[in-house]
Amino acid sequence: MKTIYENKRMTLPNQVLMPAFLAVVLGLSGCQQEVGPAEKAGQKIDRAVEKGEQKIEQSRIDATQKLEAAKESLDQQADQASEYIEESTEASKEALEKAGEEIEQTTEAAGQELERAKEAAVDKAQSAGEYIDDSVITLKVKAALVNDPMLKASQIEVTTVNGIVKLSGTVGSQQDIDRALELAVNQQNVKSVQSDLIIKAAPSEE
Description:
- The protein is mainly alpha-helical.
- It is built from 2 helices and 3 strands.
- It is rod-shaped.
């Protein structure tokens, strides 16, 4: 009786624990089945995140490379523009200097031409004035000789060059020569008088 009772007493806990153990095992199996898809989903999310990060990193690298290339291109264009501007400025400067030299040369030539024209005009004016003065002097000297009683019968020619009077011809005596020289030198604007007067010989008595 004791043995049967002990077997019954030992069997009863086993009978109680076995279902519990099975329940735990089954529960764990169920948990494993439920956790399995979640882990897979997590792995997919992790892979997606990793791929996204890789794409983001690649995009960042590509953008950085593109920005560097664009910056380098802009720097090259800026250098080329700077060189072009410098060359254009230098060419413009040279053209302006050349134009300035040409203008200066033209102005100098025009000034010289004007100066020559001015000198020529002055010379002509002086020549014209001197010619007029010489003509006036000649007329005055002739008038003085003709109106003088001593020289009315004399044949005296008068020429004037630059205010210098020259008397030529024949007169009756040395006194006539002296009188003619006196009248000529006393006229206005006369600088000097030259005499080529000849004393006419008196007719011989036969």
